[in-house]
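Figure 6 in text form: structure in, sequence out.
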Protein backbone atom coordinates (compact mmCIF):
# COMPACT_ATOMS: atom_id res chain seq x y z
CA UNK A 1 0.00 0.00 0.00
CA UNK A 2 2.74 2.37 0.96
CA UNK A 3 4.75 1.54 -2.15
CA UNK A 4 1.66 2.11 -4.19
CA UNK A 5 1.15 5.51 -2.63
CA UNK A 6 4.75 6.51 -3.05
CA UNK A 7 4.68 5.50 -6.67
CA UNK A 8 1.58 7.43 -7.44
CA UNK A 9 2.99 10.42 -5.60
CA UNK A 10 6.15 10.21 -7.65
CA UNK A 11 4.09 9.97 -10.79
CA UNK A 12 2.18 13.04 -9.78
CA UNK A 13 5.38 14.88 -9.19
CA UNK A 14 6.59 13.90 -12.64
CA UNK A 15 3.52 15.49 -14.16
CA UNK A 16 5.29 18.77 -14.00
CA UNK A 17 2.85 20.46 -16.32
CA UNK A 18 0.49 20.70 -13.43
CA UNK A 19 3.02 21.92 -10.96
CA UNK A 20 4.14 25.48 -10.56
CA UNK A 21 7.59 25.94 -11.96
CA UNK A 22 10.04 28.04 -10.04
CA UNK A 23 10.60 30.64 -12.68
CA UNK A 24 10.34 33.77 -10.59
CA UNK A 25 12.89 36.10 -12.14
CA UNK A 26 12.93 38.37 -9.09
CA UNK A 27 14.55 35.61 -7.08
CA UNK A 28 17.46 35.63 -9.44
CA UNK A 29 17.78 39.37 -9.09
CA UNK A 30 17.79 39.26 -5.33
CA UNK A 31 20.25 36.40 -4.97
CA UNK A 32 22.56 38.04 -7.45
CA UNK A 33 23.57 40.55 -4.82
CA UNK A 34 23.68 38.08 -1.95
CA UNK A 35 26.82 37.10 -0.18
CA UNK A 36 26.64 33.54 -1.36
CA UNK A 37 29.97 31.76 -1.50
CA UNK A 38 31.31 32.81 -4.85
CA UNK A 39 32.15 29.32 -5.97
CA UNK A 40 28.45 28.49 -5.85
CA UNK A 41 26.65 29.62 -8.96
CA UNK A 42 22.96 28.97 -8.76
CA UNK A 43 22.15 28.79 -12.38
CA UNK A 44 18.55 28.15 -13.16
CA UNK A 45 19.22 26.27 -16.37
CA UNK A 46 15.63 25.08 -16.53
CA UNK A 47 14.38 28.57 -16.84
CA UNK A 48 16.86 29.61 -19.45
CA UNK A 49 16.22 26.62 -21.59
CA UNK A 50 12.61 27.65 -21.40
CA UNK A 51 13.38 31.02 -22.87
CA UNK A 52 15.19 30.14 -26.01
CA UNK A 53 14.80 26.53 -26.99
CA UNK A 54 14.77 26.24 -30.75
CA UNK A 55 14.35 22.78 -32.18
CA UNK A 56 15.92 22.11 -35.56
CA UNK A 57 13.69 23.36 -38.31
CA UNK A 58 12.03 20.64 -40.29
CA UNK A 59 10.66 21.94 -43.57
CA UNK A 60 8.32 19.89 -45.69
CA UNK A 61 9.49 19.10 -49.21
CA UNK A 62 7.84 21.50 -51.62
CA UNK A 63 7.18 18.87 -54.30
CA UNK A 64 4.42 17.07 -52.41
CA UNK A 65 2.93 18.87 -49.45
CA UNK A 66 0.97 16.23 -47.60
CA UNK A 67 1.97 17.15 -44.09
CA UNK A 68 2.37 20.24 -41.94
CA UNK A 69 4.70 20.99 -39.08
CA UNK A 70 3.54 22.88 -36.02
CA UNK A 71 5.66 24.01 -33.13
CA UNK A 72 4.32 24.85 -29.68
CA UNK A 73 5.61 25.30 -26.18
CA UNK A 74 4.16 23.44 -23.24
CA UNK A 75 2.50 25.86 -20.83
CA UNK A 76 2.16 25.46 -17.12
CA UNK A 77 -1.06 23.62 -16.37
CA UNK A 78 -1.36 22.15 -19.87
CA UNK A 79 -2.91 18.73 -20.36
CA UNK A 80 -1.94 16.43 -23.22
CA UNK A 81 -5.18 17.45 -24.94
CA UNK A 82 -4.35 21.16 -24.62
CA UNK A 83 -0.96 20.73 -26.26
CA UNK A 84 -2.32 18.60 -29.08
CA UNK A 85 -5.06 21.13 -29.79
CA UNK A 86 -2.56 23.95 -30.11
CA UNK A 87 -0.41 21.77 -32.34
CA UNK A 88 -3.37 21.29 -34.66
CA UNK A 89 -3.58 17.57 -33.94
CA UNK A 90 -7.12 16.14 -34.14
CA UNK A 91 -6.40 12.45 -33.76
CA UNK A 92 -8.05 10.31 -31.07
CA UNK A 93 -5.63 7.42 -31.48
CA UNK A 94 -2.66 9.75 -31.05
CA UNK A 95 -4.25 11.43 -28.06
CA UNK A 96 -4.92 8.09 -26.42
CA UNK A 97 -1.36 6.87 -27.08
CA UNK A 98 0.20 10.03 -25.64
CA UNK A 99 -2.06 10.00 -22.59
CA UNK A 100 -1.57 6.33 -21.68
CA UNK A 101 1.39 4.60 -23.37
CA UNK A 102 4.34 4.06 -21.07
CA UNK A 103 6.65 4.76 -24.03
CA UNK A 104 5.19 8.28 -24.12
CA UNK A 105 5.82 8.93 -20.42
CA UNK A 106 8.54 11.46 -21.24
CA UNK A 107 5.97 13.49 -23.17
CA UNK A 108 3.73 13.70 -20.11
CA UNK A 109 6.75 14.72 -18.01
CA UNK A 110 7.71 17.71 -20.16
CA UNK A 111 8.35 20.90 -18.23
CA UNK A 112 6.53 24.13 -18.98
CA UNK A 113 8.37 25.94 -21.75
CA UNK A 114 9.49 22.78 -23.52
CA UNK A 115 9.08 22.94 -27.26
CA UNK A 116 7.15 20.25 -29.11
CA UNK A 117 6.98 19.88 -32.88
CA UNK A 118 4.21 17.92 -34.54
CA UNK A 119 3.79 16.79 -38.12
CA UNK A 120 0.17 16.27 -39.15
CA UNK A 121 -1.49 15.24 -42.36
CA UNK A 122 -4.05 17.46 -44.06
CA UNK A 123 -6.79 16.00 -41.83
CA UNK A 124 -5.02 16.73 -38.59
CA UNK A 125 -3.86 13.15 -37.99
CA UNK A 126 -0.53 12.89 -36.24
CA UNK A 127 2.32 11.72 -38.46
CA UNK A 128 5.16 12.37 -36.04
CA UNK A 129 6.00 14.27 -32.89
CA UNK A 130 9.39 15.47 -31.65
CA UNK A 131 10.75 16.98 -28.46
CA UNK A 132 13.74 16.82 -26.14
CA UNK A 133 13.16 14.78 -22.99
CA UNK A 134 14.52 15.62 -19.54
CA UNK A 135 17.90 14.08 -20.43
CA UNK A 136 17.96 16.17 -23.63
CA UNK A 137 17.59 13.15 -25.86
CA UNK A 138 15.53 13.79 -28.98
CA UNK A 139 12.31 11.77 -28.76
CA UNK A 140 10.49 10.93 -32.00
CA UNK A 141 7.00 9.47 -31.86
CA UNK A 142 5.77 8.23 -35.25
CA UNK A 143 2.75 6.60 -36.73
CA UNK A 144 3.58 3.19 -38.23
CA UNK A 145 0.46 1.89 -39.90
CA UNK A 146 -2.23 2.09 -37.23
CA UNK A 147 0.27 2.02 -34.35
CA UNK A 148 2.55 4.61 -32.78
CA UNK A 149 6.18 3.97 -31.96
CA UNK A 150 8.56 5.96 -29.83
CA UNK A 151 12.29 6.14 -30.46
CA UNK A 152 15.00 8.16 -28.90
CA UNK A 153 18.13 9.73 -30.35
CA UNK A 154 20.69 10.09 -27.59
CA UNK A 155 21.60 13.57 -26.40
CA UNK A 156 24.33 15.02 -28.59
CA UNK A 157 25.65 17.78 -26.39
CA UNK A 158 27.64 20.55 -27.94
CA UNK A 159 29.01 23.64 -26.23
CA UNK A 160 29.19 26.97 -28.03
CA UNK A 161 30.82 30.17 -26.87
CA UNK A 162 28.87 33.41 -27.09
CA UNK A 163 30.02 36.96 -26.55
CA UNK A 164 27.90 39.87 -25.37
CA UNK A 165 28.93 43.42 -24.61
CA UNK A 166 26.87 46.15 -23.07
CA UNK A 167 26.84 49.55 -21.44
CA UNK A 168 25.03 50.57 -18.27
CA UNK A 169 22.51 53.35 -18.86
CA UNK A 170 19.84 52.91 -16.19
CA UNK A 171 20.51 49.69 -14.33
CA UNK A 172 22.77 46.71 -14.72
CA UNK A 173 19.94 44.32 -15.52
CA UNK A 174 18.51 46.71 -18.11
CA UNK A 175 21.96 46.74 -19.70
CA UNK A 176 22.43 42.98 -19.63
CA UNK A 177 18.93 42.54 -21.07
CA UNK A 178 19.65 45.04 -23.81
CA UNK A 179 22.87 43.21 -24.59
CA UNK A 180 20.99 39.93 -24.83
CA UNK A 181 22.95 38.37 -21.99
CA UNK A 182 20.90 35.55 -20.41
CA UNK A 183 19.94 36.25 -16.83
CA UNK A 184 21.97 33.31 -15.50
CA UNK A 185 25.05 34.80 -17.13
CA UNK A 186 24.19 38.28 -15.83
CA UNK A 187 24.03 36.88 -12.31
CA UNK A 188 27.41 35.24 -12.78
CA UNK A 189 28.88 38.51 -14.00
CA UNK A 190 27.86 40.13 -10.71
CA UNK A 191 29.12 37.24 -8.61
CA UNK A 192 32.46 37.26 -10.39
CA UNK A 193 33.15 40.95 -9.81
CA UNK A 194 31.38 41.69 -6.54
CA UNK A 195 34.66 41.34 -4.65
CA UNK A 196 35.99 44.39 -6.51
CA UNK A 197 32.86 46.30 -7.43
CA UNK A 198 30.06 47.19 -5.01
CA UNK A 199 27.14 46.79 -7.39
CA UNK A 200 24.79 48.57 -4.99
CA UNK A 201 26.79 51.77 -4.75
CA UNK A 202 29.63 51.94 -7.28
CA UNK A 203 27.79 51.25 -10.53
CA UNK A 204 27.89 54.26 -12.86
CA UNK A 205 26.18 55.21 -16.08
CA UNK A 206 28.64 54.43 -18.87
CA UNK A 207 30.12 51.36 -17.15
CA UNK A 208 30.74 48.65 -19.73
CA UNK A 209 30.93 44.90 -19.68
CA UNK A 210 31.81 42.00 -21.92
CA UNK A 211 31.01 38.38 -21.18
CA UNK A 212 32.17 35.28 -23.02
CA UNK A 213 29.90 32.46 -21.94
CA UNK A 214 29.08 28.93 -22.86
CA UNK A 215 25.73 27.59 -24.09
CA UNK A 216 25.02 23.88 -24.29
CA UNK A 217 22.98 22.50 -27.17
CA UNK A 218 21.60 19.06 -27.81
CA UNK A 219 20.59 18.15 -31.35
CA UNK A 220 20.66 21.84 -32.18
CA UNK A 221 18.36 22.90 -29.32
CA UNK A 222 19.55 25.09 -26.46
CA UNK A 223 19.73 23.10 -23.25
CA UNK A 224 21.39 25.41 -20.79
CA UNK A 225 23.34 28.58 -20.28
CA UNK A 226 26.62 27.63 -18.78
CA UNK A 227 29.43 29.43 -17.16
CA UNK A 228 31.03 32.68 -18.11
CA UNK A 229 34.48 31.69 -19.39
CA UNK A 230 35.91 35.19 -19.46
CA UNK A 231 34.58 38.63 -18.65
CA UNK A 232 35.52 42.25 -18.37
CA UNK A 233 33.77 44.93 -16.34
CA UNK A 234 34.79 48.55 -16.72
CA UNK A 235 33.57 50.39 -13.64
CA UNK A 236 34.19 54.14 -13.46
CA UNK A 237 36.97 53.78 -16.01
CA UNK A 238 38.69 50.99 -14.12
CA UNK A 239 38.87 47.67 -15.96
CA UNK A 240 38.47 44.34 -14.18
CA UNK A 241 38.93 41.05 -15.99
CA UNK A 242 38.29 37.49 -14.95
CA UNK A 243 39.04 34.15 -16.55
CA UNK A 244 37.46 30.87 -15.54
CA UNK A 245 39.96 28.14 -14.76
CA UNK A 246 39.79 24.97 -12.70
CA UNK A 247 36.55 25.89 -10.96
CA UNK A 248 37.40 29.48 -10.07
CA UNK A 249 37.91 32.93 -11.56
CA UNK A 250 41.30 34.58 -11.86
CA UNK A 251 42.71 37.83 -13.19
CA UNK A 252 44.67 37.44 -16.44
CA UNK A 253 47.79 37.44 -14.22
CA UNK A 254 46.51 34.40 -12.34
CA UNK A 255 45.44 36.07 -9.07
CA UNK A 256 42.12 34.97 -7.64
CA UNK A 257 39.32 37.52 -8.17
CA UNK A 258 37.66 36.10 -5.10
CA UNK A 259 38.52 37.71 -1.81
CA UNK A 260 39.76 35.37 0.88
CA UNK A 261 37.16 36.95 3.21
CA UNK A 262 33.53 37.88 2.84
CA UNK A 263 32.86 41.40 4.11
CA UNK A 264 30.05 40.18 6.31
CA UNK A 265 29.09 36.86 7.90
CA UNK A 266 25.38 37.73 7.42
CA UNK A 267 24.05 38.97 4.09
CA UNK A 268 21.81 42.06 3.99
CA UNK A 269 21.95 42.99 7.64
CA UNK A 270 21.98 46.43 9.17
CA UNK A 271 25.13 47.47 10.96
CA UNK A 272 23.97 48.51 14.41
CA UNK A 273 27.41 49.46 15.65
CA UNK A 274 30.55 50.01 13.62
CA UNK A 275 34.23 49.67 14.44
CA UNK A 276 35.38 52.49 16.71
CA UNK A 277 38.15 53.14 19.11
CA UNK A 278 35.64 54.55 21.63
CA UNK A 279 31.87 54.35 22.05
CA UNK A 280 29.31 54.50 24.78
CA UNK A 281 28.43 50.99 25.86
CA UNK A 282 24.64 50.76 26.45
CA UNK A 283 24.82 47.85 28.90
CA UNK A 284 27.98 48.62 30.81
CA UNK A 285 26.92 52.29 30.73
CA UNK A 286 30.39 53.60 30.01
CA UNK A 287 32.66 54.62 27.14
CA UNK A 288 34.54 51.74 25.58
CA UNK A 289 36.25 50.92 22.32
CA UNK A 290 34.23 48.69 20.00
CA UNK A 291 36.76 46.72 18.03
CA UNK A 292 34.31 44.84 15.93
CA UNK A 293 31.17 45.34 13.91
CA UNK A 294 27.65 44.57 15.16
CA UNK A 295 25.22 43.24 12.62
CA UNK A 296 21.60 43.52 13.70
CA UNK A 297 19.70 40.35 12.83
CA UNK A 298 16.90 38.28 14.33
CA UNK A 299 17.78 35.43 16.68
CA UNK A 300 18.41 32.29 14.68
CA UNK A 301 19.82 34.00 11.57
CA UNK A 302 22.54 31.83 10.03
CA UNK A 303 26.10 33.01 10.63
CA UNK A 304 28.62 32.10 7.92
CA UNK A 305 32.36 31.70 8.08
CA UNK A 306 33.83 34.63 6.16
CA UNK A 307 36.78 32.55 4.95
CA UNK A 308 38.21 29.05 4.79
CA UNK A 309 39.76 28.26 8.14
CA UNK A 310 40.00 26.11 11.25
CA UNK A 311 37.91 26.38 14.42
CA UNK A 312 40.20 27.83 17.10
CA UNK A 313 37.54 28.16 19.81
CA UNK A 314 33.93 27.22 20.26
CA UNK A 315 32.10 27.81 23.56
CA UNK A 316 31.26 30.48 26.11
CA UNK A 317 33.64 33.33 26.86
CA UNK A 318 32.89 36.33 29.11
CA UNK A 319 31.08 39.21 27.38
CA UNK A 320 31.03 37.40 24.03
CA UNK A 321 28.59 34.79 25.35
CA UNK A 322 28.56 31.86 22.94
CA UNK A 323 31.41 32.54 20.57
CA UNK A 324 33.20 30.92 17.62
CA UNK A 325 36.75 31.89 16.67
CA UNK A 326 38.26 30.78 13.39
CA UNK A 327 41.87 31.06 12.33
CA UNK A 328 42.80 31.56 8.68
CA UNK A 329 46.08 31.34 6.78
CA UNK A 330 48.13 31.64 9.97
CA UNK A 331 47.78 35.40 10.55
CA UNK A 332 44.03 36.09 10.42
CA UNK A 333 41.36 35.37 13.03
CA UNK A 334 37.61 35.97 12.83
CA UNK A 335 35.35 36.11 15.90
CA UNK A 336 31.57 35.60 15.96
CA UNK A 337 29.92 36.54 19.30
CA UNK A 338 26.55 36.55 21.18
CA UNK A 339 25.46 33.40 19.33
CA UNK A 340 22.32 31.48 20.27
CA UNK A 341 23.67 28.15 19.08
CA UNK A 342 26.55 26.52 17.22
CA UNK A 343 26.36 24.40 14.08
CA UNK A 344 25.79 20.77 15.01
CA UNK A 345 29.01 19.00 15.94
CA UNK A 346 31.19 22.12 15.57
CA UNK A 347 34.46 21.45 17.39
CA UNK A 348 37.92 22.88 17.83
CA UNK A 349 40.30 21.93 15.00
CA UNK A 350 37.51 21.41 12.48
CA UNK A 351 38.13 22.70 8.95
CA UNK A 352 35.53 25.21 7.73
CA UNK A 353 34.90 26.53 4.23
CA UNK A 354 34.08 30.10 3.30
CA UNK A 355 30.31 30.59 3.49
CA UNK A 356 29.70 27.54 5.65
CA UNK A 357 27.11 28.04 8.41
CA UNK A 358 28.89 27.86 11.75
CA UNK A 359 26.27 29.21 14.16
CA UNK A 360 23.10 31.24 14.63
CA UNK A 361 22.59 34.80 15.83
CA UNK A 362 21.58 35.19 19.48
CA UNK A 363 21.92 37.52 22.43
CA UNK A 364 24.15 35.61 24.85
CA UNK A 365 26.86 37.41 26.84
CA UNK A 366 26.81 41.17 27.41
CA UNK A 367 24.40 42.60 24.88
CA UNK A 368 21.36 44.86 24.72
CA UNK A 369 19.61 42.93 21.93
CA UNK A 370 20.01 40.23 19.33
CA UNK A 371 22.93 40.87 16.99
CA UNK A 372 26.13 39.33 15.75
CA UNK A 373 29.35 40.79 17.06
CA UNK A 374 32.03 40.19 14.44
CA UNK A 375 35.76 40.81 14.74
CA UNK A 376 38.46 40.59 12.13
CA UNK A 377 42.01 40.29 13.46
CA UNK A 378 45.29 40.54 11.61
CA UNK A 379 48.25 39.23 13.62
CA UNK A 380 46.06 39.30 16.73
CA UNK A 381 45.00 42.94 16.33
CA UNK A 382 41.37 43.87 15.59
CA UNK A 383 40.89 45.70 12.30
CA UNK A 384 37.74 47.15 10.77
CA UNK A 385 36.42 44.35 8.53
CA UNK A 386 34.43 46.88 6.50
CA UNK A 387 37.47 48.97 5.64
CA UNK A 388 40.58 46.85 5.76
CA UNK A 389 41.95 45.69 2.39
CA UNK A 390 41.02 42.04 2.16
CA UNK A 391 43.59 39.56 0.94
CA UNK A 392 42.71 37.61 -2.19
CA UNK A 393 42.04 33.88 -2.24
CA UNK A 394 44.81 31.59 -3.50
CA UNK A 395 46.26 32.30 -6.98
CA UNK A 396 46.60 29.74 -9.78
CA UNK A 397 48.96 27.01 -8.57
CA UNK A 398 52.49 27.02 -10.00
CA UNK A 399 52.01 23.56 -11.45
CA UNK A 400 49.16 24.75 -13.65
CA UNK A 401 50.40 28.27 -14.38
CA UNK A 402 51.52 27.50 -17.97
CA UNK A 403 48.20 25.95 -18.80
CA UNK A 404 46.40 28.97 -17.33
CA UNK A 405 48.63 31.48 -19.13
CA UNK A 406 47.82 29.97 -22.52
CA UNK A 407 44.10 30.19 -21.78
CA UNK A 408 44.38 33.71 -20.35
CA UNK A 409 46.33 34.96 -23.42
CA UNK A 410 43.63 33.67 -25.68
CA UNK A 411 40.78 35.32 -23.75
CA UNK A 412 42.74 38.49 -23.12
CA UNK A 413 43.34 39.13 -26.79
CA UNK A 414 39.68 38.40 -27.48
CA UNK A 415 38.64 40.92 -24.81
CA UNK A 416 41.10 43.50 -26.18
CA UNK A 417 39.63 43.10 -29.61
CA UNK A 418 36.08 43.50 -28.30
CA UNK A 419 36.99 46.57 -26.28
CA UNK A 420 38.56 48.24 -29.31
CA UNK A 421 35.52 47.43 -31.42
CA UNK A 422 33.27 48.87 -28.72
CA UNK A 423 35.26 52.07 -28.39
CA UNK A 424 35.10 52.49 -32.15
CA UNK A 425 31.33 52.09 -31.96
CA UNK A 426 31.01 54.75 -29.26
CA UNK A 427 33.06 57.23 -31.33
ZN1 LIG B 1 29.78 44.29 19.22
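Output sequence:
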Amino acid sequence: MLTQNLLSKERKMKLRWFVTLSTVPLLGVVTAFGLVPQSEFNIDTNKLAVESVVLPKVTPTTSSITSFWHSERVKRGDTVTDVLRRLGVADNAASSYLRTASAAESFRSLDGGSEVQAETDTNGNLVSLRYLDSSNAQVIIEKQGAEFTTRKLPAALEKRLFVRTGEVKTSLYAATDAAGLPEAAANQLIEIFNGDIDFHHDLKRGDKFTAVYEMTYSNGALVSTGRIQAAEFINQGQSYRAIYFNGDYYTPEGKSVRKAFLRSPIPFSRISSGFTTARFHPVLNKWRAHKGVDFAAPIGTAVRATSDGVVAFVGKQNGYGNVVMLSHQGRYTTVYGHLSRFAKGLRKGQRISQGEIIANVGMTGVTSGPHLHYEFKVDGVQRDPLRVAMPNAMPVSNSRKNEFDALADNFNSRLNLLRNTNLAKVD
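Caption detail: The two ends are 73 Å apart (CA to CA).
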